[in-house]
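2024-03-11 09:14:02 DEBUG pipeline.ingest accepted 1 chain
2024-03-11 09:14:02 DEBUG pipeline.ingest length=123
2024-03-11 09:14:03 DEBUG pipeline.predict start
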Amino acid sequence: QVQLVESGGGLVQAGGSLRLSCAASGRTFSSYAMGWFRQAPGKQRELVAGITTSGSPNYADSVKGRFTISRDNAKNMVYLQMDSLKPEDTAVYYCAGRRLRPIGMYGSDYEYWGQGTQVTVSS
């Protein structure tokens, strides 16, 4: 089992940057595919970016070229670097993990979740 804790959210102006971090507990973090999801008010939770156990990334079309997901298995960390932020990126961002499986596209694919961190982008 793994516990996930996000940090790094906040308020930023459009065009700015934020870096989200997700700290994972447990000794088997390297065996988890990880994802960053977001949920805006009144909208469904959506996958923003995922990363395989070997570090291969996958991005939603809406964030390609602006967001970068990475992981450091030695530190049990996964990151989401968000650049050129837009007001439509405003949401609660969640870190999620699924063990011994590829990246999942849906929230139901993931077994473990963090508590979320708010990202607000002002225009």
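2024-03-11 09:14:41 DEBUG pipeline.report DSSP finds no helices and eleven strands in the chain.
2024-03-11 09:14:41 DEBUG pipeline.predict end
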